[in-house]
Design a protein that fits this description.
single chain; 192 residues; mainly alpha; 6 helices
């Protein structure tokens, strides 16, 4: 009885979060060291920072948790040398890629064992994914169309494209699930 590599299952839910966190931290460090062009009349975001935000678009939403603190004199202290919104972004990266990995694991390891009924939790998750996908689609189009007026058009084009890619998956996957369920229900009711 030796080691069986075929019996081992690759778990994306365990692999993706640390890999994406390391990538996000590396890109954040790179962005911190990126030179800022002189003579700009608006805040500048390096391309690597915009690409990181595009890759981890759902994680950017975690920064919303810091909004209540903007109006108070007591801004949260730094956590591990990061501002509160930077720390929450990295937490969001881990959560985002855990959820993506879990969805991939479920898809890969449960082929052919689909249930005919959708749970309430699955329905809520699908609706939330659809809503987020629609928001990312609108944001991607806006960023993409306004990129020429920004001080870093290349970075904003990349961000817009990545938001559109996220929107395709966040709208497409739940829509396919729903269509599959409807098709199954229609074939089951017509045969019975």
């Amino acid at each position: 009885m030796g080691w069986n590599p075929r019996g081992m299952r690759l778990r994306f839910a365990l692999l993706l979060p640390p890999a994406q966190l390391l990538l996000a931290v590396a890109m954040w460090e790179w962005a911190q060291r990126a030179p800022i062009p002189k003579g700009l009349d608006s805040p500048y975001s390096p391309t690597v920072d915009l690409v990181s935000k595009g890759i981890n678009a759902p994680a950017v939403l975690s920064k919303i948790l810091t909004l209540p603190f903007y109006r108070t004199p007591h801004w949260p202290p730094s956590i591990l040398g990061l501002t509160a919104d930077e720390f929450l972004f990295f937490v969001g990266v881990v959560i985002t890629w855990y959820l993506v990995g879990r969805a991939l694991d479920r898809y890969i390891h449960s082929r052919g064992t689909g249930r005919s009924r959708m749970t309430v939790g699955e329905a809520i998750a699908n609706v939330l994914c659809l809503a987020l996908g629609i928001c990312f689609f609108a944001a991607g189009l806006t960023v993409f169309s306004e990129s020429i007026r920004r001080n870093n058009p290349t970075g904003f084009v990349a961000l817009g494209v990545l938001l559109l890619v996220w929107s395709v998956f966040l709208v497409g996957v739940p829509a396919l699930r729903l269509a599959k369920r409807i098709f199954r229900r229609a074939t089951t009711s017509s045969s019975g």
